[in-house]
Amino acid sequence: MSTLLLITSAPTSIHAWHALGLAQALHSKNEDFRVFFYQDGVSVANELQWVPDDQRNLKAEWQKLAIRLPVCVSAALARGICDEENAKRHHLKQHNLAQGFELVGLGELADAVQSTDRLLQF
């Protein structure tokens, strides 16, 4: 059974951490799953978001999974997160998309929804 984890909660939300926990469990059991970061969930991909040393870093935890981490490009740009390509296109001085994350369109979410057995939103 394939699972799509749609992460719409901000990184400071307990729901975002629950999404990571489920992803880690599915990954450890070699279950088929995908993730998609949308709405406030895209903030996890911000390389410039600072996390104190005494707290767990959600971005780093997602990166450790070494899976594909698609992020909605429109939601990301609206929240000040962009990759190098979009920084050039929109004449921004810098980019801040964290390594391992990639900006994609909503068409990818639509495809994922159609090809999965269950969808869980966090």
Features:
3-stranded parallel beta sheet, 18% strand, 122 residues, alpha/beta, Hypothetical Protein Ychn, Chain: A
> Any idea of the CATH topology?
Hypothetical Protein Ychn, Chain: A
The CATH class, by name, is: Alpha Beta
Specify the helix fraction band.
25-40%
Question: Mean of residue pLDDT?
Answer: 97
CATH architecture: 3-Layer(aba) Sandwich
The percentage of residues in β strands lies in 15-25%
Backbone structural class:
alpha/beta
Low-confidence stretches: none
Gross morphology is: globular
Strand line-up in the sheet with most strands: 2-1-5
Q: How is the main sheet built?
A: 3 strands, parallel
- The radius of gyration is 14 Å
Helix-strand sequence:
EHEHEHHEHE
Structure annotation, total helices: 5
CATH superfamily membership: DsrEFH-like
What is the distance, rounded to the nearest whole angstrom, between the alpha carbons of the first and last residues?
19 Å
In a nutshell, what does this entry contain?
By secondary structure, the chain is an alpha/beta fold.
